[in-house]
Write a structure and sequence with these properties.
Blueprint: E1 5-13, E2 16-20, E3 25-30, E4 40-44, E5 47-52, H1 54-74, H2 79-96, H3 108-114, E6 128-133, H4 147-164, H5 169-174, E7 178-179, E8 182-189, E9 198-208, E10 212-221, E11 226-236, E12 238-239, H6 250-256
Parallel strand pairs: 3-5
Antiparallel strand pairs: 1-2, 1-4, 2-3, 4-5, 6-9, 7-12, 8-11, 9-10, 10-11
Helix pairs in contact: 1-2
């Protein structure tokens, strides 16, 4: 995930400029034309990539206010207090840049969408569950978990489910000469996971065929108390060359029935 950061130009010296990020001053490369001192700009990867109007600058700052607000919620503040504190911090930043205009509110219709109650997602009582704490290596520079890692944690939980049944990948490969690669996946990311957040991955079986398994996964962030992702995958049984489909071992197919969704 890559982000641009809004800043104000202090001075320009040839192909470099000194910019102010609200008290933090950095020298960056000028990668666009017609930039002057006091201009509002977008910085990405150490370069000025665009000049911003005041309206665009404020819209970007509002986005960072919302990110900070959500981070404060994750740390335990209620949403109203988190938003007020985040707004105060961003307004201080604006004043330090010489902008005496408060950070804008989110559009009313957008606010209604963001504050809509989360759809309840039913997790079967017999689902396999594993908890993990998110390390720095799984996050981007904003310390938010990269979207690909949602799928990695789902796959990890699925592998641990198989191991719990006595059919870990090493056993499948070396004892049975089989493999169960994922051939289809779909999912929705519903919320953020941040550094040191604790998550629970619930995985269950939606379907067991002669040669395939369909898994369903739900990830809950215990730090925020919200469901943050749902994912479905289909794995097929093959030989270890991945060239020929094979029938699932009878013992594995029987064991998977323990985790077939029961709607209690």
């Amino acid at each position: 995930m890559c982000w641009g950061v809004p800043a104000k130009v202090i001075s320009i010296d040839g192909f470099t400029a000194l910019v102010d990020f609200g008290g933090v001053k950095k020298e960056v490369i000028v990668a666009t034309s017609k930039i002057s001192p006091d201009d509002l700009v977008m910085i990405h990867a150490g370069m000025v990539i665009n000049k911003l109007s005041l309206e665009d600058f404020m819209a970007n700052v509002a986005l960072y206010r919302d990110i900070l607000s959500q981070e404060l919620v994750d740390e335990g503040l209620d949403e109203k207090t988190a938003k007020r504190n985040a707004t105060n911090e961003i307004n201080k930043l604006l004043v330090s840049l010489g902008i005496h205009k408060p950070v804008p509110e989110i559009d009313v219709e957008e606010t209604k969408t963001m504050q809509a109650p989360q759809k309840e997602i039913h997790v079967p009582g017999n689902a396999f569950r594993k908890r993990y704490r998110i390390p720095l290596s799984d996050t981007d520079y904003l310390q938010v978990m990269h979207y690909t890692n949602y799928f990695r944690y789902c796959e990890r939980a699925q592998q641990e489910l198989l191991e719990n049944l006595g059919f870990g990948y090493a056993t499948l490969i070396h004892k049975f000469g089989l493999f169960v690669p994922t051939v289809e996946t779909s999912g929705k990311i519903l919320g953020p996971v941040r550094l040191d957040n604790e998550i629970e991955v619930a995985v269950w079986v939606e379907e067991v065929g002669r040669k395939h398994i369909k898994f369903r996964n739900i990830i809950k962030n215990f730090t925020s108390g919200k469901v943050v992702a749902e994912c479905s995958t289909v794995s097929v049984c093959t030989d270890t060359t991945l060239m020929e489909s094979m029938t699932l071992p009878v013992e594995l197919a029987e064991g998977l029935k323990k985790y077939v969704a029961r709607h209690d």
